[in-house]
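Morning F.,

Quick status update on the modeling queue. The single chain you submitted on Monday has been processed. Sequence for confirmation:
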Amino acid sequence: MSKTNIFLIVFIILLLGGVIGGGAYFFYNRNQNQKGTGEKTSVGDLLPFKKKATADKTYTDEAGFSFSYPKDVTVEDVTPEDGKAYSVLTLTYQEKVVTLQALETSYKTVEDWLAKDKSAPKGVTLVGATTLGAVSAKQYSLGDKLMTVAVDQGVVYLIEGPQDGDYMEDTQNLLVSTFAFADMESNTPATTNVVYEEEEVVE
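Structure tokens below.
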């Protein structure tokens, strides 16, 4: 065997030994670091942080309902003056919008309104059922939108927003879960739109 072949074989053996040794050293150090901290790396640790919608403020509408929403979401009353809507609100955060409409209707059920009202969204897919202020409601998807619809006492409540599993979908779910109608026995019904800030506890 020539000296060149012997040198080549020795070089390959040393190269393989270096690769194997380096790999073993890397995995040993990683395991030692995890043992030292008592933590393990998981897929969840590598995912970006998801912002959660929290009930920081309460909005009370003159149409007779209220709901909670996060403090970094802007609520705006955009009700048209043509008298066709009791209330139209937008909740906005970083160019994403959730819309809440309270509209007059002669239909008694959500299904009738969707099927017969010309202004109702078409081609929706039922995804679930919920409640809106103790009133039965249905949830639908349409493309990249999530909609919650309820009909009560001649009013259809339509809430629409992004269906992307992100912050504004959480905000819509928060709106729906905290939605409440004004006390019908109250002698002083709401006459203006008011935003209440939740009390902050300072320790």
